[in-house]
Amino acid sequence: MDSGPDRTYHAADGEESAEPGAVPDPERSGATPDADAEATVLLLMDADRDRDLLAEALGERYRIRTGSDPSALDGKFDCCVLDAKAFDAAGDALDSRRERADPAFLPFVLLVSEESRGRPADRAWDRVDDVIELPVARRALLTRVSNLIERRATSLRLRRTVADLRLKERAMDEAPVGITLARATDGDDNPLAYLNEEFEALTGYGEERLGEDCRFLQGPDTAEETTDEIRAGLDEERSVDVDILNYRANGQKFWNRLQIEPLRNEADETTHFVGFQTDITERKIRERRLEVMARVLNHNLRNKMNLISGYADLLRDAPDEESQRRALDVISETASDLTGIATAVQKVDETASAPPLAAPMDLRDELIELRNRIRSSYPDAEIALSIPGDDPIEVTVVGLPAAISEAVENAVKHNDDPSPSVEVRVEQDSEGWVTIGVEDDGPGIPDHETQVLESGETSLTHADRLGIWLIYWVVAKAGGEFDIDTGEDGTTIRLEVPAHP
């Protein structure tokens, strides 16, 4: 008997509509049968009295679809009830349909009548989830089918929960900021339970650090006041928002904007701390540059302009030519100083704001060119290079040649010896770091010029040489170390940077 196209019977209102078989499966679309009325039962069997009775019994609680051809399995349903004939005809299609539903549970029920009893049952349990012998009481039929549909609903809810968790984890993994999740404990350690990909890219540390407290990011120059503030926030289970100097896995420094929030359970107990990390090194350098430039404008330029103005007045009222000449000399010298300050400011700005290098440069070639340029400008100076090996020293540190040049030129210009001596030493290590030492035999750099690098500038305490700041910012931007050692025999400026920050 021709059963016609697949039909859906809505038991509530008697409406009958064509089912094209292209409706998305719940396991693919994410739909979950939260109530019996939303679940669909497929009766896969020829149209006969048994099918009508089943449709009437199950239709009180579920939507009913009917079909006799195995292609009906391609449509939407939450439980399939089929007879022995349909079971034989479906064959591997049952396995295929179940695999497509995986990992969601999709139940199949085999009806065994008196005529077919014993024939398919021997192999049925490999492909179906229940075998019901006919005749069967309506209550028993509903109970057994309902149990299977409830199992399916539970599996779909679980799948949706897992999918939501995976989506949230993916969102955290792909977030543009570093994210960590640490367990709240009674002690001083809060072991990491999770870290995302951006955290690994930012710090160089990955899953090997799970189970450790995040203080492994701290180093020698990390401010104790900042770590104390973080510890206090964790102990008090409150939000923390600080700028902290941290260290990457390769030893490179970076400024980290660290934000920590406590996570609480339904009992308002703090169970975890979520941390957000952002590299703000560029911002910190820019802020310091603005401070220094503001000092240059408010102090140096004002003093120089006051000096010019004062000597201009003196020149206007000068009683003799000698006084006029001295006034003109001071004005000329001060104007030259102003030009030098403007040039230095421009050089600092261009160097500190330069974009990343498109390709590595050979530091060896840069130093040879620097030596030749210094010798040309200062013929009496002795410039020596100590560079290991003959191979290129490839680096991508923005502004490094300008920083070295500044150190060498300052060493020559501020040395009163008729033949100033400067040696540039370069060392490489196996960890990918390059150390450049600039040694001179000059009088040394005044303490106040170097102290401001750590303590900051004020109107009373400031560096007279912007070149010191230029070197400092180049090294800081690369996450390296900058040291100045001044003694009786001269000064050594040491720049230690990662070759490829």
UniProtKB/TrEMBL annotation:
PROSITE patterns: HIS_KIN (PS50109), PAC (PS50113). It comes from the Archaea. Residues 1-36 are annotated as: Disordered. Coiled coil: none annotated. Residues 238-292 form the PAC domain. Pfam families: HATPase_c, PAS_9. GO terms for molecular function: phosphorelay sensor kinase activity. Residues 296-501 form the Histidine kinase domain. Residues 1-13 have a biased composition (Basic and acidic residues). The keyword rRNA-binding does not apply. Keywords: Chromophore, Flavoprotein, FMN, Kinase, Transferase. NCBIfam families: sensory_box (TIGR00229). This is Histidine kinase.
